[in-house]
Each structure stands twice: as C-alpha cells, then as structure tokens.
Specification:
Elements (H helix, E strand, L loop, with lengths): L77 E6 L3 E6 L5 E7 L4 E8 L6 E4 L3 E4 L5 E4 L5 E5 L2 E5 L6 E6 L6 E6 L5 E5 L17 E5 L6 E6 L9 E3 L3 E5 L3 E8 L4 E9 L13 E3 L2 E5 L23 E6 L5 E5 L13 E3 L4 E6 L4 E7 L8 E8 L7 E2 L4 E8 L4 E8 L5 E6 L11 E2 L5 E4 L3 E6 L2
Antiparallel strand pairs: 1-33, 2-3, 3-4, 4-5, 4-6, 7-8, 8-9, 9-10, 11-12, 12-13, 13-14, 15-16, 16-17, 17-18, 19-20, 20-21, 21-22, 23-24, 24-25, 25-26, 27-28, 28-29, 29-30, 31-32, 32-33
Length: 463
C-alpha cells in the first residue's frame, strides 16, 4: 500500500526497479501527511500537501537539509539561471533529481515535464507535450509509488521518473482547467477544477460549484467526485490521514475522504468573507492546528508581468487563520491599504510561532508572532518591508526565508533571503527572469534552492 515501507522505483515501462544500494535519507520525524509522497526534501508544490513551505514537511525536516550556509558567514547569495517559457514549478526526488513542470500556451494548451541537471539546469530528459485543454498552471508530484503525477488542464498523467515516458493518463470530467492535485496518505490523488469569483475565472451559471475528483494511484481510475456549494480558485491542501481543506469563494471547508465508502464528507465550513469589498482567498497552509490563507485574490488576470497596482479589492488584504475544527476565525490586515492582491499562500513557522504575509498590489512583506486563536495577543507585528513579492515563500529550519522582489526599473525578478525572526536581509540575487515570479520554487538537496517564473528557472546558493 502506498505510504508503507520503502517506496518503489519504477522503470519506464512501469515495472518495479531493484532496490537502490544507497537509500534515500529518512526524515528525522516523519510527517504523516507526506506518506503518499516520495521521501525527498521537496516532492511536491509547497513541500507537501500541508503547504508548510519547508523541506521535509517542516515538522519533520529532512536531516542535513539546510540553505546557503555561506550567507550567515557573510558570503554573497549566488544564482545561475536558464530562460524557460511558462515554467510553473520545481520539485526534487532522489539526490540529483530535479524536475521542472510547465506548459505551452495554445488552444488547446499542452503541458510538459523536464528532468534537469541539478547545477547547469539543462534538460536531461523531457516528456512529450502532454494534452491539457483549458489552461491554468498545473502541478507535478513525486509519488510514493515511484511515479511522477502531472495535473494540467483537464488531464492527469503518470510519468516514469527517468525517461518521463507516459505510463497512464486520465481525462478529468469537466471541460475546465484543474489546478494541480494533492496526494493523500493512502496514495489517492485529489484534484479540483479552477473557477470562482466574478472575473475571467467565474464558474458558468450551470455549475453550482467547483468539483473535487479522487483518483486511484497507478491506474488513475476515478474513485469519487464531490461538488462544493460554491466556486474555488485556491489549490487544495491535505493532512493525514484523510483530511482535505478548500478555500472557496466565501467559505473555508474541512472535508475528509472516506476510503471505505469511497465518498468525500464535509465536516465543517466557516464563512470568511465578512466585509464589503473583500476578495476571495487562495491556497491554505495547514499547521499548528489551523489553516492560514490570504484574501483579496480577485483580479489576477491583470498580471501583465507583475502585480503592483493591479488589485481590485477595496477592503484591505488580510491574513486569516481558521482553526481546523472550524470554531475560530482570526484575521489581521497586512498593510491597511485598498487595492491589495495575492495569488499565493502565506508562510507559517510553527516552531517559532511566526506567520509571514504579503500584499503584492501594495508591495508589502510582513511578519507577525502569533498567539492562541481568538486571544488578545493573536498577532504581534515583528517586521515589515517594502518588497515586490508575489511567489510562494520557502523557509528552512535555520530561520532562512526565501522571498522575491521584482525590480520593475530593471525588468528583473530577484530572490531575497531574510532572517524570519528579524527580517534582516541575508542575501539578494537576480534570477534572470524578466517577469515577477508568481509560481513555485523548491528546496534542493545541496543546501540550495530552485526558483521558477514564467520566464526562467534558477538555482540559488551560497558557498
């Protein structure tokens, strides 16, 4: 069963490979939510289904995974990059195995996966152009069964990790884009169509809400579907053993997959849109007994290379926290200004009790020390910076926080590493991207990181 024992390696034909002589390093304290994934520092977007944005699932950081140790010794941050059109995310599998997922625009659109050289970033293998159909950036995950699973458009493809040969494929039920998938501890894949709000991504009137679809690993056979009562733009999040979390247009939902009955059951819902002029939320981070997300996500179709000045919400953007029983909802404004916009989640360091939020429309990056839910000291601001950040954040156990800063005057996106406690800048480097990153980076095996945009992929490190 997926998630039990040593994951299997698969050949291009789908048969099982012999065991490798050098086992993949184990996590110091395994995160049960990662049982369905290959045991690497970064097997999927945001590091895993809880979106903790730290290697190894944060609560069980992979032994020896650090980031750019030279920064603390005063050495510069370095980056090497390669132009890539419409890259979406990087993940890593075994040491030296780096994968980049992206797509080609068109009608219909197609997706692709490349296996990269871990230092030069040149492609060592590339999949065929994978059918997608309706476009929205998708995702790739390294599964515990040894395969890669790619969700893009209305298709899911299973690929061999070495050759990137297609082993199985499944067309999803709606003629809509599905924005990636999460892998449950059982190994099942869960995906959802992308749609909501009142703009370009609004659901058509004949649909009640977005629909979750559960697929069996290996065969990709459909197991069940579950329609939400409203649309949802945000990507799914999940936790062990069977919990699924969704941010909808107006509510946060706590669901679970009942494998015995092959059904998805709703446990709770909380209305989070309570203010005039407030926009919908995006992806939710699951940590420290709560779900954490940012609102004012409407209007991202106006991106045009960066988000500065593109927000349409009149209510100031907030970081929201909902307890995982649905009993308490807290919120704090990021900067108090109208015109906020985001397309990605906050970052939560549960060990330090620090939450980091941002407003891409108003170029603000802010950190708080958080207290107990509903308490008077629920939010204490630690630091803030004027910074044009929009991508997914990355963090490490040593306190390094990797963020981005788009320099519009030069037309280049930068990575900025800060100390998560103090906000002090530890290093900065150009990524080679002419557009602001709004997508997914990854922690690497070699004290490094990989960052991605619609214009480039870069490796970042410090000796």
């Amino acid at each position: 069963q997926a998630g039990q024992g040593r994951p299997r390696r698969m050949t291009a034909s789908g048969s099982e490979m012999p065991a490798t002589p050098d086992p993949v390093p184990s996590r110091a304290t395994p995160d049960p939510a990662l049982a369905g994934y290959w045991p690497s520092p970064w097997p999927a977007e945001d590091g895993g289904p809880r979106r903790t944005q730290g290697p190894g699932g944060a609560t069980g950081t992979t032994a020896s995974i650090r980031f750019a140790p030279g920064l603390r010794a005063g050495r510069p941050l370095q980056a090497t990059s390669r132009p890539v059109f419409m890259g979406c995310m990087a993940i890593v599998r075994d040491p030296g195995e780096v994968y980049l997922q992206g797509n080609l625009l068109g009608a219909p659109s197609t997706g692709w996966v490349e296996r990269l050289h871990p230092e030069s970033l040149e492609p060592l293998a590339r999949s065929i152009d994978l059918p997608g159909g309706p476009f929205w950036p998708g995702g790739v995950a390294a599964h515990a069964d040894g395969s890669l699973y790619v969700t893009f458009g209305r298709w899911v493809h299973r690929l061999a990790p070495d050759s990137l040969e297609v082993l199985a494929a499944h067309e999803l039920p709606r003629e809509r884009p599905y924005n990636s998938s999460v892998v449950l501890a059982s190994g099942h894949l869960v995906t959802k169509d992308f749609g909501g709000g009142v703009g370009a991504a609004a659901l058509p009137p004949e649909l009640r809400g977005s629909e979750l679809v559960v697929l069996a690993p290996g065969t990709l056979e459909e197991v069940t579907r579950h329609e939400l009562p409203e649309g949802s733009i945000a990507r799914l999040s999940a936790d062990a053993p069977d919990r699924i979390y969704v941010i909808g247009d107006t509510h946060a939902f706590g669901l679970r997959f009942d494998e015995a009955t092959a059904t998805i059951v709703e446990d709770w819902r909380v209305r989070y849109r309570t203010r005039d002029g407030q926009g919908f939320g995006w992806d939710v981070v699951i940590d420290d007994g709560s779900g954490w997300f940012l609102d004012d996500g409407e209007g991202t179709e106006a991106f045009g290379g960066h988000f500065a000045g593109k927000g349409v919400a009149t209510a100031p953007l907030q970081l929201l926290r909902v307890t995982l029983d649905g009993s308490t909802l807290d919120a704090v404004e990021v900067c108090g200004l109208p015109g906020g916009i985001i397309a990605n989640p906050p970052c939560v360091d549960a060990g330090r009790r620090i939450a980091v939020g941002f407003d891409s429309g108003n170029a603000q990056l802010v950190a708080w020390r958080y207290g107990e839910p509903g308490a008077a000291d629920a939010w204490t601001e630690l630091w803030r910076h004027d910074q044009h950040h929009a991508a997914h954040l990355l963090r490490w156990a040593g306190g390094e926080l990797l963020s981005h800063d788009y320099d519009a005057s030069r037309g280049v996106d930068q990575v900025v590493v800060r100390d998560i406690e103090t906000g002090d800048e530890l290093g900065r480097a150009d990524t080679g991207s002419p557009v602001q990153s709004v997508v997914f980076g990854a922690a690497g095996w070699a004290d490094d990181a990989y960052v991605v945009s619609f214009g480039a992929v870069a490796r970042v490190w410090s000796d």
